[in-house]
Automatic annotation (TrEMBL):
Name the UniProt record assigns to this protein: Putative pterin-4-alpha-carbinolamine dehydratase
Organism listed in the record: Phragmitibacter flavus
Assigned protein family: Belongs to the pterin-4-alpha-carbinolamine dehydratase family.
Gene3D superfamilies to which the protein is assigned, alphabetical: Transcriptional coactivator/pterin dehydratase
Sorted UniProt keywords: Lyase
Domain of life: Bacteria
Molecular function GO terms recorded: 4-alpha-hydroxytetrahydrobiopterin dehydratase activity
Biological classification of the source: Bacteria, Pseudomonadati, Verrucomicrobiota, Verrucomicrobiia, Verrucomicrobiales
GO BP term, pick one: tetrahydrobiopterin biosynthetic process
EC number: 4.2.1.96
Length: 95
């Protein structure tokens, strides 16, 4: 099982993760788009990456905005898997 990160590790990784915040045991990323369907397509890309990593976020698709929430359910908090997915989402937002 992937180990829970400690507060120092979380703070350090968050400082290098633009667009994301920590809410309790979750990372929350908010992505804004010019077009609604751009957000839908982004969510699809993140979904594919999540499936490939077997690490799945919750995603709320709104009007030209997608909110991504991720935590490691099996560990009950934040692990490296969550930050890896968040970094990948940031890459995919730029595509
Ligand atoms: C059995 C399967 O590998 C697990 O349930 C995976 C699926 N996707 C997951 N996604 C997230 N966010 N956390 C998990 O602990 C997790 N576990």
């Amino acid at each position: 099982m992937t180990a829970l990160l400690n507060e120092a590790q979380i703070t350090s990784q968050l400082s290098d993760l633009p667009g994301w915040t920590r809410e309790g045991t979750e990372l929350v990323g908010v992505f804004v788009f010019k077009q609604y369907l751009d957000g839908v397509a982004f969510a699809g890309r993140v979904g594919e990456a999540a499936e490939a990593a077997n690490h799945h976020p919750e995603m709320l698709i709104g009007w030209r905005k997608v909110t991504v929430r991720v935590s490691t359910h099996s560990a009950g908090g934040l692990t490296e898997l969550d930050f890896a997915l968040a970094r990948r989402a940031n890459e995919l937002a730029g595509e």
